[in-house]
Design a protein that fits this description.
Order of helices and strands: HHHHH
Structural class: mainly alpha
Shape: elongated
CATH class: Mainly Alpha
Largest sheet: none
Number of domains: 1
CATH topology: Helix Hairpins
CATH architecture: Orthogonal Bundle
Strand content: under 5%
Length: 165
């Protein structure tokens, strides 16, 4: 059939044969839940610690100290994201979805950041999308915490000033 009739010809046989499995969905849900719990607990501790450090820095009246708190918080958030990537990478190694820990970490990282490299075997390819969802949700959570901290950081020098005229 000309142009429209051979639609299946444009797909690889592996794509045509792929069937989403229940265990793939369940493992993806478990990994997503673990990621979100790690992020929620980690961010809760980070926000409280950063707020306390910001109060401490304000009492010292040093702008570089509040900048330091902001930078340390960002570094801690990055470390938290990397920990979450390690969880997924460990799963990929455990299930033989990657040949070694290094490639598992790389694959998990590029999918967590939604670059979607597509290096998982077809048996686990649904997890690439679920890993991307975990990354988007965790980045959104981190962004909201950083915005709140940035507002506090920006308004710190003006907190004791009266600008009403």
């Amino acid at each position: 059939m000309p142009n429209g009739g051979g639609r299946l010809e444009q797909f690889l046989q592996a794509d045509i044969d792929y069937v989403i499995r229940v265990d793939e969905l369940l493992w993806g849900g478990v990994l997503l839940a673990i990621t979100l719990v790690i992020h929620g607990v980690g961010m809760s501790h980070m926000v409280r610690t950063s707020a306390g450090l910001m109060v401490w820095a304000k009492t010292r009246r040093a702008h570089f100290r509040t900048s330091g708190v902001f930078v340390l918080t960002i570094l801690a958030i990055v470390a938290l994201h990397l920990l979450e990537v390690v969880v997924w990478a460990m799963f990929f190694v455990w299930k033989d979805a990657q040949p070694n820990a290094s490639s598992a970490f790389y694959n998990a990282l590029v999918n967590y950041t939604t670059l979607a490299a597509g290096y998982l075997p077809i048996r686990w390819r649904l997890l690439e999308g679920m890993l991307g969802m975990a990354g988007v949700l965790c980045f959104a959570f981190s962004t909201s915490a950083l915005v709140a901290l940035a507002q506090q950081f920006i308004y710190t020098p003006f907190a004791d000033k009266d600008f009403r005229g």
